[in-house]
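Protein modeling request. Please complete all fields; requests missing the sequence field cannot be processed.
Requester role: graduate student
Desired output: 3D structure, token encoding
Chains: 1
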Amino acid sequence: MTRAAVLGTGSWGTAFGKVLADAGNEVVLWSRREELAWAVNETHENPDYLPGIALPAGLSATSDALEAVRGADFVVLAVPSQTLRDNLAVVASALNANSLLVSLMKGVELGTTKRMSEVICEVADVPLSRVAVVSGPNLAKEIASGQPAATVVACTDLEAAERLQAASLTSYFRPYTNTDVVGCELGGAVKNVIALAVGMAGGMGFGDNTKASLITRGLAETARLGMALGADPLTFSGLAGLGDLVATCMSPLSRNRTFGEKLGRGLTLTEILAQTQQTAEGVKSCRSILALAQKHDVDMPITEHVVALCHEGMTPVEMVRSVMQRETKSE
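Delivered output (331 residues):
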């Protein structure tokens, strides 16, 4: 039987672990907290992140990261993107020589501006052909509930992508293969920043015209950055681009949209962080994404304004005024 380890017991890590178990794999989740691992094993539920959703018998949990990854055919990385480097370093020496490392993370590393696949290759000392990315309109609670969804599994090695596709195919979860790792990663990272902006618009009381404008121009920003880094522009019209962007910007289940709504209502970053348990990746990654864009001379005004609001003291009203008064240009 194929064995998979999932490092991270947040909502998406747990939901994808459930997908893998439902597809017939033996799955072990790694939790930093021993009490959460115990709860998963004893109650077959993740009470902190997916309460009320039954987990399959083929899924277990441990608080020992090395135990989790030993002998695993797939090692799924589902930790917050800014903690990937430290978490992966702990288990790198215990990885199976042929394991496929699978990134569920949607961010760009602060300081280095590296995508998650680049960090994985560096820390684990593996070629890019051993790294896959999962990205798409994949709200964890809906997938864990068995609602139909599709995603992209991307790897430069198509055969490896097809192995992951087969290992994660269920009656409710349909993966498509792709070899454009760069495009899939950037689509997943930038959409969190755009969702913060869409959430802010909603929090300020603006309607669907405003939100649709932000989504569309946000997609243009994402595609510009992607093409500058060698991505296939068609990727951004697919599940890992437009699909993920729409789900994250429009669903009340989206952490980034919800975080943005609170910013739009006037709460400070500190106040919101004190209220929430889960990570809104866009809050941290917006700075590294903007730095990456500036490095490649790519104009990303929505991202620039989200950074200014989250980290430089700009108010929502000032953000709207500044965006709307930008120099006019052709689409």
